[in-house]
Amino acid sequence: MYSVKEAFYTLQGEGAQSGRASVFCRFTGCNLWSGREVDRARAQCTFCDTDFIGTDGQNGGRFADAEALATHLAALWQGPVDSHSDSSSNSSSNSPESRRYVVFTGGEPLLQLDATLLAAMHARGFEIAVETNGTLPVPPGVDWICVSPKGDNKLVQTRGDELKLVHPQPGVDPERFSGLDFTHFFLQPIDPEPGRIATDRAPMASVVDYCLRHPQWRLSLQTHKIAGID
Predict the structure, then answer these.
(1) Which residue in 125, 129, 123 sits closest to 93, CA to CA?
(2) Burial label, 135 (beta-carbon count in 10 A; 0-12, 13-18, 19+)
(3) Rounded to two decimals, what is the model's pTM?
(4) What's the mean pLDDT in 92-109?
(5) Which helix (H) or strand (E) holds 186?
(6) What angle do CA 146, 224, 182 make, to 5 degrees?
(7) 2-166 placed in CATH 3.20.20.70
(8) What does each C-alpha distance from 110 to 137, 185, 190 come to in angstroms?
(9) What phi and psi values does residue 34 have, to the nearest 5 degrees?
(10) 164 DSSP assignment
(11) Per-residue model confidence (pLDDT) at position 195
C-alpha cells in the first residue's frame, strides 16, 4: 500500500534539474515532523513548506500496489513518450532530454519508495529522482539522488547527485557537508514564511555571500514559486 498526498505534472523548481518537465509524486508522512502546525516548534525539522498529511491533494490517494501507482503516475506525463526508452538502454533516444522523469518527494519519500515501485517506473521508461532528508538509505535503482539535510539530524545517505542545504539553519555549517560525495552542492535561502516567496532579504544575502566566498556551493532558488507554478 502506498499513500500519496498529491501527484502532478510540472517543471522541476529547484537545484540542478530546474526547469525540467517532471511528474511529481508527494508521499504522505515524514520521520522529522508530523506535518501538524501544533508540532512544528518541537519537530526535528521546523521550516518545512509543504503539506504532506492525508491523501486529499491533487491526484492523491491510496494505491494497493506498485503497478497501480506506477500506472497512475505514468498517465500524468504530458510530454512525448519514447516507447524504446528504458533504464538500461544506451541508445541516443534514451538521452535525459527524451526520457520521462518522475520525482518522488514528501514528507520523506523513503518511508515508502521501494524496489518494487522503482522497477515499475523504470518499466514505463521513467528516469527516477528522489528528494530526501538523507536520514534513511536510498534503495538501489534511483537515478538521481538529491539530499536536503535538516538540522543536526544524522545523515545516512552521504553520496548522491546533489546536496541541497536550506540556509541559514541555526547551528548548521555548510562546511560540515562539503567533503561528502556529491556532484553538486546548493545553498537555498530559507523562507521565513513557509509556502510563500520570501520577502526578508537577509537569508538571500547570506546565501549569496557564502557562495561567493565558497565557490563549491551554488545558489538554488525556488523557481516554481517565482514562476507561479506548482
Answers:
(1) 125
(2) buried
(3) 0.89
(4) 79
(5) strand 181-189
(6) 15
(7) yes
(8) 8, 21, 23
(9) -70, -20
(10) E
(11) 47
The confidence score (pLDDT) of residue 96 equals 56
Task: State the DSSP string of 1-13.
Answer: -EEEEEEEEEE--
- Contact predicate 198/189, CB 8 Å: yes
Lookup: cell for 125: 521508461
Give the separation between CA 165 and CA 88, rounded to whole angstroms: 31
Q: What is the pLDDT of residue 48?
A: 84
Q: How far apart are CA 23 and CA 126, in angstroms?
A: 10
183: alpha, beta or left, given left = phi > 0 and alpha = psi -120 to 50? alpha
User: Alpha helix (H) ranges present in the chain?
Assistant: 66-74, 115-123, 202-213, 223-227
Helices assigned H by DSSP within 148-198? none
DSSP 27-59: ES--SS--S-GGGGGGSS--------SSS-STT
**Which among 173, 161, 190 is positioned nearest to 48, based on CA atoms?**
190
pLDDT surpassing 90 at residue 80: no
Q: Which residues are catalytic?
A: 24, 30, 45, 48-50, 131, 224
Residue appearing with cell numbers 521513467: 126
Q: For the stretch 108-122, what's the b/e string if a residue is b when 16 or more beta carbons lie within 10 angstroms of its beta carbon? A: bbbbbbeeebbebbb
